[in-house]
Amino acid sequence: MTKTTGPSIYIPTDKNIFDALQHKKVTQSELVTFLRKRGILVSNSAQKQQLIEKISAMTLGYRDFEWLGRILENPNRKDKSTHATLKGEIEGKHVKSACEAVKANLAADGDDSVTVIKKGNKTTLKVTYVDHDFTKTEMRQRSVKTCEIEIEQSDNSVVMKMPSTKKGKEISEQLKGALRYQAKEESGKDLQEHSISLEAISDAKSRSEFFDILIRNIADFELDTVTSVDVFNFRFGGSDEFDEEDTEARLASYINKAALNGEGVLESKEFSQLHSQGFYIYRIVWLANEIGTEKPRVEFEVQFGDPATCTDFTYKVRGLYHYNSRTAQYNVTRTAATKLENDKYGIYLRNASELAHSKVLKTLGG
Amino acid sequence: MAETGNIEALAKLVSNDIFKWFKWRICKPCDVNWDCVSEHHNKNTHPSDVVFYYDDPYSAKTSYINTDLKSYAAGSITKTGIERALKSLAMSVECANISESWQDKYLLSDIDFGSVSGLLFVYNHDNDYDKDFDAELNKVNSKEVAVAEDNEVFVFGPSRIQRMCDVVSDLKMLKADEQMVGPDRYTFFYPDLIRARRSGDEWNKPATLESLTSPWLIIKHKATESLSSGFIVYYHQDGDTVEEFVYLLDAMSHYQMFSSDYRLRVRFTRPCTNAITNFERAKHEYLRMWGDDSARQKQMDSIEASQITNFTKTYNPMEIGMRQDD
Q1: Which of A19, A110, A164, B90 has its CA 20 to 30 A from that of B109?
Q2: Burial of A356 by CB count in 10 Å (0-12 exposed, 13-18 middle, 19+ buried)?
Q3: Contact B194/A41, CB-based, under 8 Å?
């Protein structure tokens, strides 16, 4: 069996430890405490660098290794979500056996561990894997992550919700492949994949329109303000344009991407200027207030990962500003969404984007 | 202050029973007072029960260990008592590093003088090994103790001392069975690090203060007629996970222990009931990770894992507590 990622447990060298301890997340007092637990007392004002020299030369056991791993762990940065819809005759048993196929496949060639849980019409495939980032210092290269793919079944379609990560893409592709195979075996028909994309629309105005509809149609929410917009100009960004030599000469200087931050960005004259020059929105961040008493203000973000084609659609709940009944205002600091909130608002985002997508396509189609 | 004349005898016992086996040597004289040189201590002299020394395997400098021997009854180990002892020791260590009077008495040579560390050596003089020592030590206010910058004070409580005694008695028993050699033919093992190289040849290295606080202790021994050369790893954690042993095996591989025909023994000092099973599982896991070719399989099979026999219940160098602190 060959592997590209290596084993999941290995002993770090003193140099690895030395480098890892330099990180600002490892505080001087953390190091003093570490030594104290071993029965070594040092000055409270000992220099961090000196403590690092000392500890990195000591023998560290597995529990020490875990301790360090815990300190350096990335606080679970919320990955963006995306979804895909498969249309066709799909039965519960197809979903089940597709999940089993993916599970067997992943278990066969790696350390990934997979669980499949079915609840009602929803099946969750949860993959725990070790993510590597070789641009970081040795001890921070590995992190254990999970990737959850939710498969929601309804009449004649399944919706697959997944994180917009490399792993999410890899697994969902496998899952789609397995589902297509299952359905084809059974009914002889191909499944149609549907995902949000504005590739078919070349008009900049309609592309922006999609976002405008989306942000105004989040169920139970009232739009507050748009805080950030990223725009892209297809005319300059598209590679075809540059095939003609004279065009290239004429466009010696050009801007094809711009980010606008502030309040009420869509109403600003800068935005309308860019808009009139053929720039369209491909990423938007906005605040919306949940309707009802003492409900929070929520910050959302949606974007097309590929701005030129408007494909690779992702969305994310950036956080919540809770309502403070004492001051009768929203809190100033943002808190991260809990899993429950994330799931709830994620569905709103998904529905609003589907709605905006079909509206834009409809107006275009006449 | 020098308390009773018995301290010298006690120091010799502790040295013979324990530290000789870890290759620490004792500096004459025991149990003396020397001049305080720090005005903020408000003292005239500091005491030294016993001073040990060894050559640090990495820096090659001589480390001195200014030791305070304390005996407590099991129930009388209190935060206040530990705090008071540590406070006094921290001051002694601060002065010892700069006091001419201390250096005149103990320093073997000005050349290669490393530093003076403190060691609070706390054992029980009755039969109830006190489990609460670490908890009491944790309560000690580090502001009260005030270890000076660049100084270090080590604390060996009843359980660590017990563990050291267990290792010594295991070595003695193995030696009686001709399964181990005496201190002159073994060394504590220090791998070359990336940021530090072991000084001199690999033999005759002491167990440093740091290595005695580590999760495991490695001894390398020479061959005899009835014993091939090899390593003994004393493993101090309870071994309730497979992962910790995969980690240990990786460490052993890293230290090149598998590369020759060494005899490899892993001896558990205080294992949980599953430790040995977990260790065997870790071998399988390790083979699975790296591919189980026959050579590696043979290496794994040759590792002997067993638990040491804990004969002694508690370390009590002299039957009657000579120096009872509350």
Answers
A1: B90
A2: buried
A3: no
Question: Shortest Cα distance from B149 to chain A (angstroms)?
Answer: 5
Here the ipTM equals: 0.92
Task: Return the structure tokens found at A138.
Answer: 């040795």
Query: With a CB-CB cutoff of 8 Å, which residues 9-68 of chain A face chain B?
Result: 9-11, 13-15, 18, 32, 36, 38-46, 50, 56-65
Q: For B193, which of A7, A39, A57 is closest by C-beta distance?
A: A57
- Please give the residue of chain A at the shortest CA–CA distance from B119: A40
Q: Are B147 and A42 in contact (CB under 8 A)?
A: yes
Give the gap in angstroms from C-alpha A155 to the nearest C-alpha of chain B. 45
In whole angstroms, what is the distance from residue A258 CA to residue A279 CA?
9
Give the nearest chain B residue to A64 (CA atoms): B215
What are the DSSP E strand ranges found in A276-342? 279-290, 297-306, 311-321, 323-324, 329-330
Secondary structure (3-state) at A259: strand
pLDDT of B119 over the 70 cut:
yes
> What's the pLDDT tens digit per position in B167-213?
999 999 999 999 999 999 999 999 988 888 888 888 999 999 999 99
Q: Would you state the pLDDT for residue A299?
A: 95
The encoded tokens of residue A321 equal 């500003």
B211 touching chain A per CB within 8 A: yes
Q: Are B151 and B118 in contact (CB under 8 A)?
A: yes
Residue % of chain A over a pLDDT of 90: 34
Interchain CB distance below 8 Å, B151 and A14: no
Residues B243-296 pLDDT 10s: 899 999 999 998 999 888 899 999 999 999 999 999 999 998 888 877 778 888
Distance in angstroms (rounded) separating the CA atoms of residues A324 and A142:
40
Structure-token pair, residue A284: 């938007």
Shortest Cα distance, chain B CAs vs residue A60, angstroms: 7
Is B214 touching A (CB cutoff 8 A)?
yes
Q: What is the mean pLDDT of residues A302-318?
A: 92
From the list A7, A38, A41, the residue facing B289 with the nearest CB is A7
Give which of A30, A34, A59, A63 to mutate to test B binding, by max B Cβ within 10 Å: A59
As a whole number of angstroms, the distance between CA A25 and CA A137 comes to: 14
Asked whether the whole model's pTM tops 0.90, one would answer: no
Query: In terms of Cα–Cα distance, which of A79, A78, A83, A80 is closest to A152?
Result: A83
